[in-house]
Design a protein that fits this description.
- This protein has 2 helices and no strands.
- The longest helix is centred in the middle third of the chain and has 96 residues.
- With about 140 residues, the protein is mainly alpha-helical.
- The N terminus is likely disordered.
- Keywords: DNA-binding, Nucleus, Transcription, Transcription regulation.
């Protein structure tokens, strides 16, 4: 008897069935719309990430190119610096030889010669006696 009362209640009522069907239909439509929005968000996110990756790859390529150019400039300057160091050493040796000759002339001839003392360029290369000349710079020396 209880079965009959329960089944004769809301299950057999066509209005209740229509309300339940309408709710299911609305929920299904809502779920579909939510899924569609979710797919669109994911697609937008994916496009944004692809664009960002492309931009970063371009930027990385530009930085690598800049690093290569600056490394090449550094190597060229370092080579020129090494040449200048070798020239300083060679000229220092020549000057010491000439000063030695002057000392011998001074000792032999008796003439009083003012022979300057030469510092070792390896000890303090930044304190080498040299004339003050301005160092010319150009704007393209400091490009980044």
């Amino acid at each position: 008897m209880q079965r009959q009362a329960a089944s004769s209640g809301s299950d057999s009522d066509p209005r209740y069935a229509n309300i339940v069907d309408e709710r299911k239909r609305k929920r299904m439509i809502s779920n579909r719309e939510s899924a569609r929005r979710s797919r669109m968000r994911k697609q937008k996110l994916m496009e944004d990430l692809i664009n960002e990756a492309s931009r970063l790859q371009n930027e990385n390529g530009q930085l690598m190119q800049s690093i290569n150019v600056n490394s090449q400039r550094y190597a060229e300057i370092e080579n020129a610096n090494n040449v200048l160091r070798a020239q300083v050493m060679e000229l220092t040796d020549r000057l010491q030889s000439l000063n030695s000759l002057l000392q011998i002339v001074d000792d032999v001839s008796g003439f009083e010669l003012d022979i300057p003392e030469i510092q070792d360029p390896l000890l303090k290369p930044w304190q080498l006696p040299c004339t003050v000349q301005p160092i010319m710079a150009s704007a393209d020396m400091f490009q980044y």
